[in-house]
Amino acid sequence: MSRVAFVNGKYCDFKKSKVHIEDRGYQFADGVYEVFTVFDNNLVDYNAHLQRLFRSLSELSIKTPIAKKAYLFHIQKIIKLNLINNGLVYLQVTRGVASRDFKYSDSIKSSITITGKIISDDTFNHSVFNGINVTTTKDLRWKRCDIKSLNLLPAVLAKQVAFNNGSKEAWLVGDDGFITEGSSSNAWILDKNNILRTTPKNSNILGGITRESLIRGLKTHGIKFKESKFNLIDIKNAKEAFITSATTFVTPVIKVNNIKIGNGKPGKFALVFLDIYKKSAIFSK
Ligand code: PMP
Q1: Residue 154: domain span
Q2: Which of 101, 227, 244, 283 could cross-link with 200 by S-S, CB 3.0 to 4.6 Å?
């Protein structure tokens, strides 16, 4: 069966799906997106992802193209039509189509596209059990990283630097020398004092939904944790490191640049944190 996409109110063949060349998403990256994970036929933390989508829209004064309660219907339909048991749903809303002009009118009708993709169990599990390498690179992004906007060029460049260095993820280094987050994930270490650390939530990072769920779980389990930024020296001294994101869950980091984390294998707590996350995340149909 061929894949199906939802494009501005219509379900269509993924390969033939089209948007207008003057869509402001294409012209200006004037839009936002959200990624919903499907795991064992369940959506993971659906409400939190939808809430974040609406926050991103509101911060950019983009109107929702469909009613809030209609999102679940279309997302579920894309999951069904694309036969996704494990995978992801990518949803994008842009300010809409208008003659190219930086400023915008409030009367533009926003655009929506939803696509789905199957991810095999092996792909989900490979990095989680083997760990990944990370390469650090300068954080070149704007000052509103809390908005999940389409403005992803710095993330594209960072991920390519990582890939060129044999890494799966880039950790972005802010002007102060501290890691902000990953190019598409939040960054964590278990420091030399056995305290789990991740950058505090502010406009320099995206408030990850996976990060939030893990923090909830850590609090329930009474695990020492601090929203505190860290730098390369802290990484050198770290006992463990990992990333969190909707599609990577809790994935151990075994090397940062040429620094081996622990003994260069996923740390002994990595699976514990993964388990805590899975118990804390909300799975729904
Ligand atoms: N930071 C950035 C820059 C991201 O792109 C992502 C992935 N959406 C995350 C963090 C992790 O967010 P989440 O856990 O909601 O996937």
Answers
A1: 124-284
A2: 227
